[in-house]
Amino acid sequence: MTLNPYLWLVPLLPLAGAALNGFFGRRWSKHVISAVALVFCGAAFAMALLLAAGFSSASAPYYYDLAHWLRSGTFQVDFSFYLDQLSLVMLLVVTGVGFLIHIYSVGYMWDDDGYYRFMSYLNLFMFFMLTLVLAKNYLVMFIGWEGVGLASYLLIGFWFTKDSAAAAGKKAFIVNRIGDFGFLIALFLMIKHFESLDFTHVFAAVRTLPTETAGVGLLTAIGLLLMVGAAGKSAQIPLYVWLPDAMEGPTPVSALIHAATMVTAGVYMVARSSAIFERAPLAMMVVAIIGTLTALFAATIGIAQTDIKKVLAYSTVSQLGYMFMACGVGAFSAGIFHLMTHAFFKGLLFLAAGSVIHGIGGEQDMRKMGGLRVYMPVTFLTMSVATFTIAGFPPLAAYFSKDEILWKAYSSPNGSWVYWLLGVITAFITSFYMFRLWFMTFFGDYRGAIAHEDDKSSRAGAPSTHAQGGSAPHGHGHGHGGPHESPWVMLGPLVILAILSFVGGWVGIGGRFEHFLAPVFQSGAAEIAHETAGETAGKGTETLLMLISVGAAVLGFLLAWTLYFRRPQLPARIAASLGGLYEAVSHKYYIDELYRVLFIKPLIDGSTTILWHGVDQGVIDAAVNDSATAARHVSDNARHMQSGNLRSYAGWIAAGGAVVVAYMVWMGVR
Amino acid sequence: MVPLSYYLVLSGILFVCGVLGFLIKRNIITIFMSIELMLNGVNLSFVAFAAQWHDLRGQVFVFFVMVVAAAEAAVGLAIIIAVYRTRETLNVDQVNLLKL
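^ Those are the sequences you sent over. The predicted structure of the assembly is below.
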């Protein structure tokens, strides 16, 4: 390992930006705020590029110990940072996409009164995310892990005067807490059995243990608990419910936190812990099954959503499922590869959706859009790139990463044709709902209202008076005459991300990306060797599978084209004929309602009757109150002795004296 | 010769009169005089015992008590005058600023 004294600067720079804007931003002009936020975030990006420039797949990891933290006997945890090939990929994605979204936010949030707050939170998020990515041990990672949760909570509830936003923030925080619980227990297990949380030490200790082929052992337990944490953070079944609600936050937040970076932290953590998972096949299988099911499940919900951001949210959940599927079959580098391309195209999709929402005055319902390609050509073009990418059309980025995952799901030793089949079905559904979104938004006739002042106030549930710092992201000093293109400060990031979404997958051609990450996933190296051996045999199968998945994408496109372009009246008829099934899908299979009945209601009722009224009021409060009352009664009586009346004291003395004398007379004086 | 018990009974009566006066009366000067009465009741028993046992220590002690009583009277009367000037009353029940 090489010492690199500049490593700690990367996360600390955005923290400085967050502190400056948070403490002083209220008094600064928006230009200064933007400059501070962009400079510190940009500096982190520049540092990341500098680090990347001197790094290759052969480089030894960089590390830097910033300060001592916990020391107890032989157990020690320090504030240490660590950069290897895996963290480098994450670092570049987080700082790069993060910086672009910072630029975009300048345009999108300019008219919001909480502008300085927003920029400060964004920088704070960058700090925690970079801490998470650059951590050298699990505890520092956990700081980042909790910190991004906090930033996510703050940003989802950014328009906290809106009830639904405040509730969504709480929901995200609480659901994440369930996952964090699992993560924490896993850390305790590691401390108990390995007496260390340092990645290098833990993985070295793990590699000395045998693979747990039969039954549940220590590593399986740790792996499953880590997966609980990952499922919370990365919105997998059964903890995915917070992510769609998180769309209450401003759109740049959805792009940065709830699509490109934070939600991928779980995938990163699982990939980082690959040494543990590789020795726990059962945990791996659970990861793969959860990932596959989530991918399919969320994709089907995406079909029937009408809110443009909700479609993208379920799409994010579904794509994260792919990544877990990859990790679960042991193809960690494929998962990270998809994580990277997903950051590009899903960030782009959200930003483009934000541009659409911005351009038509805050409307998010796709049924009120349509024909927008005429009004906003740049947004349309970039969105098209993203849509074709996510659908899996070659030679765009996601084609390579998704195909890699599907091939690994089929071919790797832990894989199975079931994963592959479900993955292809998901790919078909993904293609269908994404093109549905595309056709509904950009084709046909514009179905929204044009040119109304009252249009502003009609934005769903949001007070849009600018003086209140309300939530309407538009209102940049002109009336809303109709759909219009966004300013270039927003379009610039779109174009860059579109280019990345186009070419981003090419780094994976010929296994170069996998080769780059090979030092991190040690057994990955063995797998590459294994694969090159089996390459010739599997070549034909691989091509066939590839053709099938492209075919699925094309089929999805054609179906969406038929239903939403050629015969737009057809979907309603189909929905009507499906009846209950359509209802269930459009209500997200009533999962939220189910959770409400199963968990939330018993929890609240139990807390109210047993814990609050019973234990808290009945036992704790009662004990305190009753002892206080008793003390008061006793003192109330006793205090009459001390009236302040001198003669009553004298009376007591005299009475006492009389008693003493009487006693002496009675007993006789000796 | 008068038996010792007579002195002691008289002394006891005087003391009890003083105690009762102290407890019952409200006028601060009367209370003051009651204290003097108690002191003198005690003095009487000291002197009586001294005469009985031919021991001068009792007589000496009485002198001390008288000296202290005189000093007390000087300070006490000064306080009474000061109280009367500020409160315009000698009723102890009305001198109650420090009470609950």
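The helical segments of chain B are 4-24, 28-53, 56-87. Residues 26 and 91 of chain B are 5 Å apart (CA to CA).

Shout if you want it in another format.
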